[in-house]
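Technical note accompanying the year-one report. For the benefit of new consortium partners, we illustrate the data format agreed upon in the data management plan: each record pairs a sequence with a structure-token string. No post-processing was applied to the example shown here.
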Amino acid sequence: MSLASWFRWNEPPSRISQKSPMEMVVETLMMELSWQTKQAEKQQRERENEYRKIKTGVDYGWLVSYPKQSYDISPGERLQLEDMCTKIHPSYCGPVILRFRQLIAEYEPEVQEVSRLFRSALQEAAEKIKEEEEAKKLARQWNTKNKTSLSLTTFKSRSRISPFISDIKTISEDVERGTQPTRRVWSMPEFRNAK
């Protein structure tokens, strides 16, 4: 048996697992949530230690051992958050993480509140995505309507607009003559058919 078989030098490099962009987004966002949960738990322990130090005046922190992670999100809530993550477009993954970190830094939450802040960051991104989709939809509708209306502008009508024709009656003429004005709208130009 050769050493090459032990080290597998002659095998082609293994390919990275093919995951869909949606799976990658969900995985990335959920990893960020778990990391922020661990950090919040660590900060909460540090605050409790500081409080005990102030209260008792003695530091027993070196004597205490903590479990790696004692708080975990309920399975139902985890599924809801994963479902919300599937609605996030891959281009919004980074901004969601930045917004989530911003909320964490701003509020310095307890461990139980981290998932709520994560949910609010996901909802903000989902609303922004929805607004952009609606704007794109309106832009597409406008473009299609605009194309049809442009085709109508090339159509030449037989009617002509004559705003300065000499026989147009004005309100002042009727007042001067003391007659009742006709039921015509005076601000509109007169339309005549070309012969």
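Partners are asked to follow this layout when depositing records. The longest strand covers residues 159-162.
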